[in-house]
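Homework help board

Subject: predicted structure for assignment chain

Our instructor gave us this sequence and asked us to write out the predicted structure in token form, then describe one feature. I got the tokens but I'm not sure how to describe them. Can anyone check?
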Amino acid sequence: MIQYKVIEIFGSQWWIGNTPTVLGIILIIIIGKRISPESKDQLAIILGIMLIAREGLIHPYKVYLGLWTVRDSLPLHLCGMSAVLSGIVLIWRHQLVYEFVYFLGIPGAFHSLLTPEFTHGTTGLLFPDYFLAHGGIILSALYLTLVLRMRPERGAWWKLAIRIQPLVLLVGFINWILDANYMYLCHKPIVSNPFLIGDWPWYILGLELAVLLHVLLLYLPFGVYYRKREKVGLSTFYRTPKEVRNFAWIIYPQDPVEIKSGGFGTI
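My token output:
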């Protein structure tokens, strides 16, 4: 039987897991900003391969431990989806995937690291894997933003808030079929969170509000910059031949560069 476990905030295990996670993210970002443009791309690919490999190996490992079940182990939580996409987007850069990881991955992983909930327990390698998975999500989003200089497009926050609603409905339908609780749509998580107000279904409204507030907060610095550029009459976006916007110069105002794959540029 799967044993859920929650570790105490600021307890010894909390520090053991989070300290190397945070230091590792900071170190890789610093290294990424100091190396050449070609090396930035190469490091992104290496990180992407590592994150994809982690996601691919953890499922057989859970099977080996006898912990994998279709009701608990599919990557259908927001962090599970972000963990998959965080590696993919480092290799094949796509604006919508980047915005998903940036807007949903960062807050989801942040709260998971702040209030760790081990849905499969901490047996064997599951404890370090938890921090590697959630730290990898944040690392991917920050590396793409701070090192490769990808940016959310104008108005991305409300567009994403609308786009994820069909996903919520789809996951809810899967929960109904599997008698599962992905995205915590059927039962509240057992962690303490001020947004988890009331019982089902009312706490879901709190979760939706929390997502919206986090997305808006992450978009805020870019939204302010777009407004300032509009006031001085400067163009706020660059279109590729496929009419996809690239804002690679928002914080570092240089000409945006479109990479050969049709993704979004590194400078």
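Reply (TA_rk): Your tokens look well-formed. For the description, you could write something like this. The helical segments are 12-34, 37-65, 78-91, 95-114, 126-147, 156-178, 202-231. That's the kind of observation they're looking for.
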